[in-house]
Specification:
heterodimer; A: mainly alpha; B: 315 residues; alpha/beta; six-stranded mixed sheet; 29% strand
């Protein structure tokens, strides 16, 4: 039984309830747009970073990456809910591929993210955002790899926080925000003090967002691209490995 | 169907080693209905989880449905069904969708999985709730969905972990009706755990009692009861002196215990022993106010084996 086939099965199972909750879906779509309009407009006006139309070039990939942080976190949490109930155990007794349980879930979050991304790009266009088409696709593919890693790691965290799930909330709430700021997703790190830049240097997200910006601009040969690929790839490999291990302890 | 040799599992909890299952030898033939009996914490679920490949044993070997649980867990998974203690449906999924998913997990294509899902709905009388989520189902319906999920791929061997726990008496009777039907129609081998003794007594042809991670008795319910507990004669006398004499007389045929004016005697066959015992009491001049016989329950078996009642050992 193939990994791809099993991923598809998990994806189908996860995705089926989505169209049944149109209101939730509408809000999920609206959120990043509001964020883009409010935060992005402030940023473009303030002259932080590169200012003007170029600010959108810089900012839109960052917002996408931030969304990519939150979606897979959801995937980990929903898997925790299934581990607390009996449905994860039930699926683990079938011949279903273990890693597919993680990837299928993350991909579901991703389809939603893709629609959000498309909306985001369309809304940003009249404001001066000029993406490179092939670059956008490459950038989204890179986000999928990152999402698999983050989603799996969030699952590991979710399992560690069993049975109540409190630790999961505490850690994600505490870690997510510094992680975002230390990656230069929202505000450029150029003006940051030296200690912050040092901290950012070990933040894998920072490399991924740099790669995203290069890709969205169509600069495929930029040095940031391989760094981002390696950072996302390592996160995905470590995440999947730890996630499959955690699943043994999950039931 | 199941062959286990020296199967053991220990966990480390707060740096202390806990031997959940010590040394399990087990052979279950095809078509049997086996009840695995023991108090909470006896190691029932741990055993089941090892046999269903959910966890690896610390030591020992086992083959389930012809496959080794350590060397070929995927082979085991493809050949067994498992109904866990908790409900197997996802909170935001629907009954029919979950059954189709489950079929696909076992390698069926969409069309075949859909057809099989509908067969399961019919088999377990769930057609009316096919489009519902778990939140709107009754406890009994949810349990039936769990069983349907365990049967989608028509496994020759089905494990059930406390299939009737948490249900009202009617729900329990329903679940048992389905389980019995399944066996009659498909010859499925059933291996289940329960702590409802009367259920094991009425339904299983073989009862395995486990305590502290070890099998302490194995046989038919009737055999266990006659070997380990025996019938009981209860005689009420008119005075404590009479009771003492009655106990002394009973000492020749069985084991007697005195409680006030009441004497309880364990004998292999109470109905046959009672007339003779009463005649002997009469001959000895012991006045008897009342007498009754009782068949033993599995709880008596458990008491005889461990010195504890199965219900007050929630350790």
């Amino acid at each position: 039984m193939g990994f791809a086939r099993d991923t598809r099965i998990v994806f189908d199972r996860e995705f089926a309830p989505v169209p049944r909750q149109p209101v939730g879906l509408a809000f999920a779509m609206l959120q990043p747009l509001l964020f883009l309009l409010l935060f992005g407009s402030l940023l473009a006006g303030s002259g932080a970073g590169e200012g003007g139309a170029a600010a959108w070039q810089w900012f839109v990939p960052g917002v996408l990456l931030m969304m990519c942080l939150f979606g897979p976190m959801q995937a980990g949490y929903s898997l925790l809910m299934e581990a607390i109930g009996g449905s994860l155990e039930r699926l683990l007794v079938t011949p279903l591929n273990r890693a597919a349980l993680l990837t299928g879930r993350v991909l579901k979050e991703f389809v939603i993210l893709l629609v959000q991304a498309a909306l985001l790009v369309v809304v940003a266009l009249p404001m001066g955002f000029r993406p490179h088409l092939a670059g956008v696709f490459a950038g989204l593919a890179l986000l999928v790899v990152l999402g698999v890693g983050l989603g799996s790691l969030s699952f590991v965290l979710a399992i560690a926080s069993k049975p109540s799930g409190t630790i999961f909330y505490l850690v994600t709430q505490t870690v997510l925000f510094p992680l975002v700021l230390l990656s230069g997703v929202l505000l450029p790190l150029g003006s940051a003090p030296a200690w912050m830049r040092a901290a950012a240097a070990v933040n894998p997200l920072r490399y991924v967002v740099d790669a995203e910006r290069a890709l969205f601009a169509g600069r495929f040969g930029a040095a940031a691209v391989p760094y981002g690929l390696v950072a996302a790839g390592v996160l995905a490999a470590v995440g999947l490995l730890a996630g499959v291990r955690a699943m043994r302890r999950a039931v | 169907m199941i062959h286990a040799r020296k199967l053991a599992k220990s966990f480390t909890v707060r740096r202390r080693r806990v031997d959940a299952v010590r040394c399990l030898d087990l052979d279950v033939g095809a078509g049997q209905l086996v009840a695995f009996l023991g108090p909470n914490g006896a190691g029932k679920s741990t055993c089941l989880r090892m046999l269903t490949s959910l966890i690896r044993p610390t030591s020992g070997t086992a083959t389930v449905a012809g496959r080794d649980i350590v060397a070929d867990p995927a082979g085991v998974r493809a050949r067994i069904g498992y109904v866990g203690q908790r409900n197997g449906m996802g909170e935001s999924n629907r009954v029919l969708d979950e059954l189709v998913t489950q079929g696909r997990c076992y390698g069926l294509d969409r069309t075949a999985a859909r057809r099989r899902a509908h067969e399961m709905l019919d088999l377990l009388d769930l057609a009316d709730v096919a489009a519902r989520g778990p939140g709107t189902l009754s406890g009994g319906q949810r349990r039936r969905v769990d069983i349907a999920l365990g049967l989608v791929h028509r496994p020759p061997l089905l494990f059930l972990d406390e299939p009737s726990t948490g249900l009202d008496p009617r729900g329990r009777a329903e679940i048992w009706a389905y389980i019995s039907r399944l066996r009659a129609e498909h010859g499925t081998t059933l291996f289940l755990t329960t702590h409802y003794l009367e259920e094991a007594d009425a339904m299983a042809e073989r009862v395995i009692v486990i305590d502290h991670g070890e099998v302490i008795a194995d046989g038919t319910a009737a055999r266990l009861k006659s070997d380990l507990a025996g019938d009981q004669i209860t005689v009420t006398t008119t005075g404590e002196g009479d009771a003492a004499s009655a106990a002394e007389l009973a000492g020749r045929t069985g084991e007697a215990a005195v409680d006030g004016v009441t004497v309880r005697v364990r004998v292999p066959d109470a109905a046959a022993a009672l007339p003779g015992y009463l005649r002997a009491l009469d001959a000895a001049g012991v006045k008897v106010a009342g007498a009754e016989t009782a068949r033993p329950t599995l709880d008596d078996v458990f008491l005889a084996l461990t010195g504890r009642s199965i219900d007050d050992t929630s350790a």
